[in-house]
Amino acid sequence: MRSPGDNLPMKSSGPERTIIVAITGGSGAGKTTVADALAAALAPLTVALLREDDYYNDNAATPGFDAASFNFDHVDARDHTLLAEHLAALKAGQAIEVPRYDFVLHGRRPNCTRLEPAHVIIVEGTHVLHPPSLRSLYDLALYLDVPDDIRLTRRIRRDVAERGRSVETVTAQYLGTVRPMHYRFTDPGRVHAHVISFDDTLATDEAAQMEKLRETVAALSRTVREKLSLPAT
């Protein structure tokens, strides 16, 4: 029995047809969760996943860099020129070397991660709909619209549990840079999205979150397959 991926023959350098899917939204909107779930749902198609956070500038190499005062939520904190070059290369069937950012040293690690071309390229991050150089590459763009209070609650729960931070420091960062930069750079990107997914499920309602995730991923998967002229599964 032939699988959907069999309908897309591979060139020696990659698939004959490639589409790029962008997933964005504010901090705590669920970008990484949706991107990972979509990648799994698209099997057996080949999928390459890029995360905007890997493209932070090499701050450790900057003389006088002070992580405590640096605004990591500003659009200029990441190297979108390199990200655009990498997306274009993947779409052209060329492998890339993805930088690996060290969040402890605030710089790029010496070894990169090789990423091969694929049928579907997924890129996720807070600013991936801001630079025109990125937007021009997308075949499908999703904006995750989640109310501020729910996103903040999700961020607090995540950072306290996974990163050992306090509620006070997470809240201070959110109010100081995350929220202002969201409304300056991320939220305006919704006008460039092909799909806007509204989600007001409570951070504590895991069942409702899972159901919303399934709905969002199923719809995205159908659209991706349509763009690749493949039957729905």
Shape: globular
Strand fraction = 15-25%
Total helical elements? 6
The average pLDDT score comes to: 90
SSE series: EEEHEHEEEEEHEHHEH
Distance between the termini: 14 Å
CATH superfamily: P-loop containing nucleotide triphosphate hydrolases
Q: Which segments are poorly predicted (pLDDT under 50) over 5 or more consecutive residues? A: 1-12
Task: Strand order, main sheet: write it out.
Answer: 4-9-3-10-11
CATH topology: Rossmann fold
- For the record, the CATH architecture stands as 3-Layer(aba) Sandwich
Structural class: alpha/beta
Domain count, please report it.
1
Biggest β-sheet: count, sense, barrel?
5 strands, parallel
Radius of gyration: 18 Å
Reading off the top of the CATH hierarchy, the class is best stated as Alpha Beta
Structure description:
There is one protein chain. The chain starts with 9 loop residues before the first strand and ends in a 6-residue tail after the last helix. The strands form 4 sheets. The protein has a 5-stranded parallel beta sheet, sandwiched between helices. Strands 1-2 form a two-stranded antiparallel ribbon. Strands 5-8 form a two-stranded antiparallel ribbon. The longest helix has 22 residues, at 206-227. The chain is globular and about 50 Å long. The chain has 6 helices and 11 strands. It has helices at 31-41, 80-91, 132-135, 148-163, 167-186, 206-227, and strands at 10-11, 14-15, 19-25, 47-51, 96-98, 101-102, 107-108, 113-115, 120-124, 140-145, 195-198. The chain has a single domain, classed as P-loop containing nucleotide triphosphate hydrolases (Rossmann fold, 3-Layer(aba) Sandwich), CATH 3.40.50.300. Helices cover 36% and strands 18% of the residues. With 233 residues, it is α/β, with parallel strands linked by helices.
